[in-house]
Design goal:
Elements (H helix, E strand, L loop, with lengths): L1 H9 L1 H11 L47 H7 L7 E4 L9 E7 L4 E7 L3 H20 L8 H11 L9 H7 L11 H8 L11 H9 L4 H18 L4 H8 L11 E6 L7 E9 L9 E5 L4 E2 L5 E2 L9 E3 L2 E7 L12 E8 L2 E5 L9 E9 L11 E5 L4 E5 L1 E3 L15 E7 L7 E2 L4 E3 L5 E10 L8 E9 L8 E2 L7 E7 L4 E6 L11 E8 L8 E10 L10 E6 L13 E8 L7 E10 L3 E2 L5 E5 L4 E2 L16 E3 L2 E3 L6 E2 L7 E5 L4 E6 L4 E2 L5 E9 L4 E2 L4 E6 L10 E2 L3 E2 L5 E2 L10 E4 L24 E7 L10 E5 L6 E4 L5 E6 L2 E6 L9 E8 L5 E2 L4 E6 L4 E6 L7 E2 L4 E7 L7 E10 L8 E5 L8 E2 L5 E7 L2 E6 L8 E9 L11 E6 L6 E7 L1 E2 L44 E8 L7 E10 L8 E5 L10 E5 L3 E7 ...
Parallel strand pairs: 4-16, 19-20, 56-65, 75-85, 86-97
Antiparallel strand pairs: 1-2, 2-3, 4-5, 5-13, 6-12, 6-14, 7-13, 8-13, 9-12, 10-11, 14-15, 17-20, 18-19, 20-25, 21-24, 21-26, 22-25, 23-24, 26-27, 28-29, 29-39, 30-38, 31-37, 31-41, 32-39, 33-36, 34-39, 35-37, 36-37, 40-44, 41-42, 41-43, 45-46, 46-51, 47-50, 47-53, 48-51, 49-50, 52-55, 53-54, ...
Helix pairs in contact: 1-2, 5-7, 6-9, 7-8, 9-10
Length: about 1550
């Protein structure tokens, strides 16, 4: 039986395999290749293709006014308990919307309807579903017009993956026309015999017509989805779906066009062989593509797919090929290869299974990556075949790229197709601070290579550059530079052979066909042009392995540019630095330079540096003991390079230079036997004395003097001069800032008696200040020098205090100082002068110093650039001001604080101006001033005592603020002294405001301006510092003005509470007006209470206002409360805006407070006059029967309702609970109600409407919770869950809250199912005994029946004997199952043909109990990643013995499950392999007898007769064709 089954599915090859396997024959790779049969059933998607459209939920499911069409019922899908659901909890609390969920094959649709419409809507929807049930029960599809229905469904079709209507586009496609006049719907309907109860006379004719359509495959594919959804509504059409699936398959053969190209024909290269396949017919998923003849080594073990998915693992059987190479014909040269031939006994086979469809005319690609052979081969001719559920193409010839007869020929050898090297142009030479870089001899030269291989050079490849042939052994290795270090590394350098070896790094690859650049740097600083001969070439080898040993890239020669050699050298990059720029001192000069060619004393005599102006040779700068043969000789502190004496003076003395005073330069003569190398930095240093004139040496020049001998008697040809760059310079003599400065003892104005000081006598009482002159020079100021200070105008007298410095004279602001001592450079000296400063302020911002040095005839004017801080202050008066109280009609104190920078004598007049005209100011008692006169806005005060400099002078006034808002005043203060000894006048000065932190209380001022809006509240912008501004007064206002109410319940007694706090005294007799107290009609308001004595309480209904007249004063900042009572209306209403104002009279003026909005609470319930709509604040429902499983059907259930309302419920009012749909209790007008005597004990039950109504016996007060209960029989079958609600005569319908989801009345929609289903395995070894482990638990108690079974499908690759199979596990888990209804407990039925396990349930499955068991199969011998499994249940039976019938249908349902990961994935099997494969030998002696020891450990049983092949024993000589096997040899170390 097993053999016939396998031959039906897998063909003759597998029959032989199974037969030979039974005899223990060895395995071969071909037996692991399985091809799906051409007659396999097509897999039909279970996604809906006819979407249900509902534009208006209120009307689209109206079974009475808008009954559904057949097409709408098909779109809705099979009518079940889950088709339509109502969810009252999906919206936020308090919402009056109910969510409607419509479950369709395409998607679950969500809508919302009003709770007031839900019950009528449910009845319409139920009728809508009943119409669809009637359609489904019809036995004659033709009643509805079959072809018309197909057309209508095609118009509604939507592809699940794209959302497009591919059905209509196919029908309209010109390619899809038939040779008859009838439309495709009529043809398809007649071909499937849909017209008259399966009796068709011309069925075959229409089938032939349909199959003649070029697009029959695509049309059938589209209508397969339509029929799959159609059969759910019309179950009798299920057989038609099978007929459609097999339509046109008989003798149908499609054509397949195949084009193939390859990416490389280079030996050893990575080669992508790309197949492009297409067909005029649709190629469905599940089709197997088989390719033969790709006889090469795979580099990537999976296909690379561009636009479709293929199933993994894919199938690959390598070719059986042999090769022979003639090694004797290969001379031992580096890049030659042997002559080889190859032949194959069996071609390779590749098979892939497609997981997606390919439309007609569409194309897809498959890419396979190979490693080409290391030698040339014959082109491989390929064949391609396709077979599958709906596609069958025989072996197809392949179209190759132009000029090719096949693939994998490996025609070309690896090589560099292009190679070049360049060096930088001479114009790019530069000095980087360390070395010279460029293209000249003596520089570091960069060689920039560009190579293009015709094969990838991966990591580990070796690149050899030859041709750096040198005559010196110490040539440094060329080094990689720039980005090249990320690509390559240097492994060896042989300077004698001139060979550099580079290796490709792991992160770098030289790609085939692309130019790769890298750079090498070579230091030629110590090389002569004759030392290096470059004739370069490049070659490469691939990483060493068995294949690559013959794949090297041969030599490729370069054309190398020549390096530049300069025959007439010049000085390059000269620079000059000095140790100091100070004038008149010795400085060490450092000269650095290089030359562009070789120099020696036989060609060039000297190096000349000219232009060192303002310097001189000085014996004082030459260290003691220096050997100087002449007055022009200058010793060199640093001579040349590397400690050698490279230079000499004109007298022949080494390490000296010759000074030329006529050119202000030095000359460096080359010493004998000295060579100056090109582009090497040389350095010499020497000392000269700086002059006293600032000088930069950037214009100095240096040149080479070409003399034949030291004494040049003929014409001398010098090199072109080169400008010298560098920081060397001589600084100009100067007094340095900021150390050099003029400062004063104090900066305040001073007073003195002119009569006592005649301006010439040095009288101590006439001196009131001192001047300090600080001097800091960058040169030595010698005695007898004179220093002049200009710009001291305003002083009448100056005298030098520290006379040891010299003498000083002062006249007309000019000070002349004649020094009698030397002032050393960079030393700070301070000269002090007694001075008589003026009373008026003077700004000294132009003081200048001039110096005359007779020794050096040095005369320089120096602008010291003093800052504006050098200022003698003028008489000044600082004024601060503030006030104590900004409130209206309040007592206030104005403070002025004066600080003068000179004394205020008795009788000094102080004028205070810019005061408010209405300000009445009185000096406080004890003031040091008296008011001399008072005018509008101005006060004149006279001091009665003497005030010293910088004393604080306080002037304080008392005043009373006005009742109105007033802005602050900018006070001006002027002080005038008529004293004969020190007269002055100061001002007017503006008084600045200071904040008095003693001020407390609410915030008055906002931001930077005074707010005169009595309704304005500062909030976060409060700035109390502005309340200190003198004379500022705020508007009279209520600081606190708040309103709230007591309750928001409808019809309840309520009161309005007001809180008011004024910022002024509100006198008795004032009126407080509260307006806007109602939005629609005036309520019955009445006075309740107040925290003050009211004189009257008046209600003005015309203005909706209340006016309260005060009988007593309300003080400043006193909080006042007022309560007004009224009755809330019985209907809901929104809050209103309430206003408050005040008016009254004082003894001096009237008071008017503008009308302002009262501040309301943030919560809605306490806002004034807000009334809630009558509603239940508690509305819950529960039941006594909480089991929603099958044991709850048709049992007696106690329903309990708990309510509490925000409004009184009147006696005789009726409470109605509705939504109790489905109960089998009969309607009754005497329905028993249980309550606590608040309700009647009898109500009305309407089974049709699902409602219970009961009367209230006595008034129920607001916020009173009460309950009542009643009994109903549960529904007898599963049903849609209905929403429950409650209403009264006064309260609109309101949803009932279900306290516990498990106690939802009449929620019996749950079906029995298996949850937590998991499948794992015990081993992934090929051919092993494998234990498949199952675990699950039922969600409710499930009763057995003859139809109850569990099936596990798709166990591909597993093998076991057909029939009963044992289960393993505990008795509880395995005893409930049998292989058949009358089979033995603890067994299942194994179907080895379909690879499935079926378990029949013969005992009940307990709810929430874990059932775990296993069964054993034999794993396949071939690699597989694990098949796609399917778990199904049929007839899970929920039975209640007290019911007249059972309500669980015998239907097949898929079960969700999980699988193990990794090796635990069911039927994941590794490929047969040797886990251990080791080989060793006993001797390495050539020609000796050797013993080869082999150790293997297979992961699969190898039966008797298996052939084990050991290959590649190259060069071994066997004594005969029969080789004895024995033990391992033993050999010594």
């Amino acid at each position: 039986r097993s053999l016939s089954c396998q031959s039906l599915v897998f063909g003759l090859t597998v029959v032989i395999f199974l037969s030979s396997y039974a005899r223990g024959a060895p395995l071969s790779g071909a037996q692991c290749l399985q091809t799906a049969p051409p007659n396999a059933q097509m897999v039909i998607t279970n996604k809906g293709v006819i979407p249900f459209v509902c534009d208006n939920i209120s009307t689209c499911l109206d079974g009475f006014g808008n009954p559904p069409s057949v097409e709408q019922c098909v779109a809705l899908g099979k009518v079940t308990a889950d088709s339509i659901k109502l969810d009252y909890n999906a919206t936020s609390p308090g919402s009056n919307k109910v969510q409607v969920l419509i479950s369709t094959p395409s998607a679950t649709l969500s809508y919302y309807i009003s709770i007031n419409d839900v019950f009528l809507w449910v009845r319409k929807a139920r009728e809508y579903l009943n119409v669809c049930r009637q359609y489904s029960a019809s036995t004659n599809f033709t009643t509805f017009g079959s072809s018309q229905i197909l057309q209508n469904l095609c118009q509604r079709y939507r592809d699940p993956s794209t959302g497009l209507n591919t059905c209509e586009s196919l029908v309209m496609d010109s390619r899809c026309k038939t040779n008859v006049n009838e439309d495709i719907y009529t043809i398809l309907s007649s071909a499937l015999c849909l017209n008259s109860n399966n009796v068709c006379s011309n069925e075959q004719m229409y089938q032939q017509t349909f199959c003649s359509c070029p697009c029959w495959s695509e049309i059938r594919h589209v209508f397969n989805g339509i029929f799959h959804q159609l059969k759910d509504s019309f179950p009798l059409l299920a057989t038609k779906l099978d007929g459609l699936s097999n339509l046109c398959l008989a003798n149908q053969q499609q054509s397949l066009q195949v084009n193939v190209v390859e990416t490389s024909d280079v030996q050893c290269a990575t080669n992508d062989v790309v197949f492009t396949l297409s067909s005029t017919s649709r190629i469905p998923k599940g089709t197997n593509i088989t390719i033969r003849g790709l006889n090469a080594d795979l580099l990537v073990d999976y296909p690379i797919v561009d636009n479709l998915q293929v199933e993994l693992p894919w199938k690959f059987i390598p070719a059986k090929c042999h090769s022979w190479c003639d090694m004797t014909s290969v001379p031992y040269l580096m890049y030659n290869k042997p002559e080889c031939v190859e032949w194959c006994d069996e071609d390779s086979i590749i098979s892939v299974r497609m997981l997606s469809d390919i439309p007609p005319i569409g194309q897809f690609t498959l890419k396979f990556r190979f490693i080409n052979s290391p030698y040339s081969r014959i082109e491989r001719k390929l064949s391609v075949a396709a077979s599958g559920p709906e596609f069958n193409s025989p072996i197809t010839s392949v179209i190759y790229q132009a000029g090719m007869q096949g693939v994998l020929a490996s025609k070309h050898s690896p090589t560099f197709t292009a190679a070049s090297v360049q060096i930088p142009p001479s114009s790019s030479d530069f000095f980087d601070g360390n070395v010279w870089r460029g293209s000249s001899w003596g520089m570091t030269v960069s060689f920039h290579y560009s190579v293009t291989p015709n094969i990838d050079l991966p990591a580990g490849s070796m690149i050899t550059i030859t041709g750096f042939f040198t005559a010196k052994a110490d040539v440094p290795s060329p080094v990689l530079s720039g980005q090249s270090i990320k690509l390559l590394r240097t492994t060896s350098w042989d300077p004698n052979a001139g060979v550099l070896l580079l290796e490709v790094l792991p992160e770098g690859t030289l790609p085939a066909g692309l130019a790769t650049q890298f750079s090498l740097e070579l230091d030629t600083s110590n090389l002569h042009m004759m030392d290096l001969v470059m004739f370069q070439s490049i070659s490469a080898t691939l990483p060493q392995n068995e294949m690559n040993q013959w794949c090297s890239l041969p030599l490729k020669n370069f054309s190398l540019p020549q390096l530049t050699y300069t025959s007439n050298p010049v000085i390059r990059n000269p620079s000059l630095d000095s140790s100091t720029c100070d004038p008149g001192v010795c400085s060490t000069f450092v000269l650095k330079f290089a030359v562009s060619g070789y120099l020696n004393s036989s060609t060039y005599t000297s190096i000349v540096l000219e232009g060192l102006f303002n310097t001189s040779r000085s014996d004082s700068c030459i260290s003691v003991g220096s050997a100087c043969s002449s007055e022009t000789s200058i010793p060199l502190l640093d001579d040349g390079h590397g400690g050698n004496s490279l230079f000499q003076g004109s007298d022949g003395q080494l390490s000296t230079a010759s000074w030329n005073p006529s050119t202000n330069g030095i000359e460096l003569f080359l010493a004998k036997q000295t060579t100056i190398f090109p582009f090497v930095e040389y350095q010499v240093s020497f000392k000269l004395q700086n002059g006293f004139v600032g000088k930069s040496f950037n214009n100095s020049k240096i040149l080479l003097r070409a003399l034949k001998s030291i004494n040049c008697s003929g014409a001398c040809q010098d090199s072109a001069p080169t400008p010298v760059k560098g920081p060397a310079k001589i600084c100009s003599p100067a007094f340095l800032l900021p150390q050099t400065k003029v400062s004063f003892q104090h900066y305040n104005p001073s007073c003195y008696d002119p009569a006592a000081c005649d301006g010439t006598n040095s009288v101590a009482t006439c001196v009131n200040n001192q001047i300090y002159l600080d001097l800091y020079a960058n040169f030595k100021v010698v005695k007898s020098s004179s220093i002049t200070v200009e710009g001291l105008a305003g002083f009448s007298y100056l005298k030098l205090v520290n006379e040891s410095f010299g003498t000083a004279s002062f006249s007309s602001g000019v000070l002349v100082l004649n020094l009698q001592v030397d002032l050393e450079s960079f030393s700070l000296y301070q000269l002090v002068f007694d001075a008589r400063s003026p009373t008026l302020g003077v700004k000294f911002d132009a003081i200048r110093l001039k110096m005359q040095d007779p020794l050096f005839s040095f005369n320089q004017s120096i602008d010291t650039g003093f800052s504006t801080s050098q200022l003698l202050f003028a008489p000044d008066l600082v004024v601060h001001s503030w006030q104590s109280n900004p409130l209206p009609q309040a007592s206030n104190t104005i403070h002025l604080k004066l600080v003068a920078n000179l004394p205020l004598s008795v009788g000094t007049n102080v004028t205070i101006s810019n005061l408010p005209s209405d300000a009445n100011l009185n000096l406080v008692e004890g003031s040091s001033f008296q008011i001399t006169s008072s005018k509008a806005g101005t006060l004149l005060l006279t001091s009665t005592i003497q005030f010293d400099t910088n004393n604080e002078i306080m002037i304080v006034f008392n005043t009373t603020n006005p009742i109105t808002c007033r802005n602050h005043a900018d006070i001006l203060v002027t002080a005038v002294s008529d004293s004969s000894s020190c007269p002055y006048s100061v001002g007017p000065n503006l008084a600045s405001v200071v904040f008095d932190s003693s001020l407390s209380g609410p915030c008055y001022s906002c931001l930077s301006t005074l707010s005169c809006d009595s309704c304005y509240s500062c909030g976060s912008s409060c700035n109390p510092s502005y309340d200190a501004r003198p004379f500022s007064v705020h508007s009279p206002q209520f600081w606190i003005k708040e309103i709230s109410q007591l309750t928001s319940w409808p019809a309840a007694a309520n009161q309005i509470d007001l809180t008011l706090t004024p910022n002024f005294l509100l006198p008795a007799g004032s009126n407080i007006t509260v307006s806007g107290l109602y939005a629609h009609s005036m309520p019955q308001l009445f006075f309740k209470s107040a925290s003050f004595q009211e004189k009257s309480f008046f209600i003005d209904s015309s203005t909706k206002s209340v006016i309260v007249t005060l009988n007593e004063d309300i003080p400043v900042s006193a909080q006042s409360n007022l309560s007004i009572g009224f009755q809330n209306p019985s209907v809901g209403q929104l809050p209103v805006t309430v206003w408050v104002s005040a008016s009254g009279e004082t003894s001096s003026c009237p008071i008017r407070l503008q009308s302002c909005k009262l501040d309301q609470p943030t919560d809605m319930y306490h806002k004034p006059f807000f009334v809630e709509a009558p509603s239940f604040n508690v509305a819950t429902i529960s039941q006594s029967q909480v089991d929603s499983g099958c044991n709850s059907y048709a049992v007696k259930n106690q329903i309990t309702v708990s309510l509490s309302a925000n409004v009184a419920l009147n006696a005789t009012d009726r409470i109605t609970v509705f939504g109790l749909i489905g109960s089998i209790s009969e309607s009754s007008s005497y329905f028993e109600i249980s309550s606590n005597n608040l309700l009647s004990n009898e109500g009305v039950w309407s089974a049709e409407n699902g409602s219970v109504a009961v009367r209230i016996l006595t008034e129920i007060l607001p916020n009173t919770t009460f309950s009542f209960s009643f009994y109903l029989l549960n529904p007898a079958a599963p049903q849609l869950v209905s929403q429950l609600a409650v209403k009264t005569d006064r309260i609109a319908p309101q949803a009932l809250h279900i306290e516990n989801p498990l106690s939802n009345p009449f929620d019996f929609s749950q079906w029995p199912k298996l949850v937590g289903f998991s499948i794992t395995q015990s081993t992934a070894m090929p051919g092993a005994l494998n234990s498949i482990q199952i675990s699950f638990q039922p969600n409710m108690k499930i009763q057995p029946s003859v139809d109850t079974r569990l099936s596990i499908l798709g166990l591909q690759g597993a093998s076991a004997i057909d029939g009963p199979i044992a289960l393993y596990g505990n008795d509880t888990s395995i005893s409930v199952f049998r292989s058949s209804v009358d089979g033995s407990p603890g067994t299942g039925y194994w179907d080895d043909c379909n690879k499935s396990l079926t378990l029949h349930l013969t005992q009940p499955l307990e709810a929430n109990t874990i059932y775990a068991f296993s069964f054993r199969v034999i794993n396949p011998l071939c690699l597989q990643m694990g098949p796609s499994l399917q778990v199904q249940t049929e007839g899970l039976f929920c039975s209640k013995f007290s019911c007249a019938k059972d309500f669980s249908p015998s239907k097949v349902e898929d079960v969700s499950f999980t699988v193990g990961s990794g090796d635990l994935f069911p039927l994941k099997v590794y490929a047969p392999a040797f886990d251990v494969r080791q080989v060793s030998e006993c001797t390495k002696v050539a020609g000796a007898q050797n013993t080869i020891s082999v150790s293997i450990q297979p992961n699969v049983n190898l039966p008797n007769g298996t052939s084990i092949q050991i290959s590649n024993l190259t060069g071994v000589i066997f004594p005969s064709s029969q080789i004895a096997l024995g033990d391992r040899c033993t050999r010594s170390a």
